[in-house]
Amino acid sequence: MRRSQLTLLSGTSSPVRSASERSAKSRPQSRNSGIAMYGAPRLKAKTAHRANSVSALMRIGKAIAAARVRAVHVVLAVVILVSSLFGSLLLRTQMVQDSFAITQTQQSIGRLTQDIQEKQVQLEKLQASLPNKASDLGMVPGAESVTIDVSGAVKATH
Fold it and tell me: Where is this region: Disordered (predicted)?
């Protein structure tokens, strides 16, 4: 009898197990354990290696897919960041240009306003000096206004 059968019959277990007992526990049991232990065909080393290779390739494929997804997210985040920084730079440049244009326009408006005030002062001086110049030329203020008709007739109006 084998040692495992002895253990079952006696009810005590031995702390020392043989290599055959350990491998028997790791092997799957079928309906007929005798056939499973002695007559079952084992996987060839190549088939087991292929199964391990396929599972390793699947793990590597999943890791590559996950890395691609991560890379896409990182690239997308970098593109968004760079485009927002570039857009911000463009907007800031445009704002500075507009600020300079506004400043120049305000300065131009200030110069034109000053020119208008100077011209109005000159006009007021000329209007004030007009009666004196007219009297120097011998003109007298008219009591009545005169309208000249195109036909040549003169009409007096009050």
Answer: 1-38
